[in-house]
Amino acid sequence: MGRFRLSQAPLSWRILVTMALFGIGVTYMVLALHIFIDTSFKVSIIKEAYSTMEWTELADHTHKYFPYYGIYIFAFALFIFVLGTSYPEWLKITAAVVPNLLIVLDIGSMWAIRFINAEIFSWALFLAGNFLALSFAAIFLLTMYDIWIQKKVP
Questions:
Q1: Are 112 and 124 in contact (CB under 8 A)?
Q2: Over the chain, what is the mean pLDDT?
């Protein structure tokens, strides 16, 4: 069975995938704006905010952010990247694993700030969030490059 590549798909498919990834990117930007409003992307504010949350608030945040990261943003983008691009298998595996580990670190750090060590895990949360943003940007840019720019090999 031949390998499916979005770069060889009809124009309508490539436009659909591109628009879907742009929509996911806008969703990510809205999530980032919401996080900025809450924390100003400052470690000290992250520490202060999460160290005082009760477990019910943490559960609410977990319930809110897991679907955003895990499903709405990364699952769809990763399906497109892994199943539709021509990159080597090692890169696809890395792209499938790293964001998911970062999501667990991000969500887990919210809890760890409150119950383990606020100083360490507020930095872990800050770094995980930034690396998640970089991961999405890399997946988005690599997918767009593969679909629209990379030379098509028959």
A1: yes
A2: 92
